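Action item from last week, closing it out:
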Amino acid sequence: MQLESYISDLLYRYECVIVPEFGAFLTQRVSATINNETNTFYPPKKALSFNEQIQQNDGLLAHYIADVEKIPYEVAVKKISKRVSYIKSYLSEGETIVFKNIGDLVLNEEGKVTFEPSNHLNYLTDAFGLQQMVSPAITREVYKQEAEALEKVIPIAVTPERRKTKPNLRYAAAAVIALAASAYMGSKYYVNQIETHNQIAQENANTQLENKIQEATFVIKNPLPAVSLTVTKPVGNYHIIAGAFRVEENCDKIVSELKDLGFNARKIGVNKFGLHQVVYDSYENRSDALKALKSIRDNNNPDAWLLVKNLD
């Protein structure tokens, strides 16, 4: 039995997953962080830890295994106990137990279990699809200092040129100014005439358009028959998530591809991080949802996961 796969499934939804007679895996939400030295942005996540002191069975892990494998609860408890015995025997021999996507377990010199969490998987569903990002350093202050330094080194000065104006040139300039003023006044009058004509034409066109709209709106000679549509609304609080996408066009493309494969795929809205979520299907019964999730992981998408949420 791959015990770590069941623990991994539960860590998405719960903050504490207890392995009876062994210990508990705990999660704690960590906000997004920035490394100022490397200019790296890290998305929010769930930080994993292990507490060897918490060993009392709360039934969560056993019930989940019983639902997935369709076995009695008592049988699931025995399977967990058998797996824990193997793990403890390997640890006592100095072996390192590797739980995929969770972390490594090993005994220290004092005989206590130490845990090194894995950073390959983010169990915070709200941050699904977010990756760490490296941004180049902002150098606007450097450019400003360089510009100020250039202004000090290369001053700009304007020297006016003195000329002697001849009387004939003075009269010619006055004539040019007079002609320009006359042309300006004539062109302004012409433009005003054109604007008045255009305004009258526009008002006539608006009147004709309003008459056509009223005729089309209130005079319907051949009304079309009414059409009745029956819409089936997907129900259920158990949703198998196919992915979340920043661009809605990509989201629509995935929905179309999944429908071609026979899934009842659809969009269920945008999460708090602005990502459009796509589901394979929604279920009313938890057992049916887990069965479908297992089939999808085996045959279509190993990264699919189950979201329990009321979308009404």
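Closing note: The longest strand covers residues 23-30.
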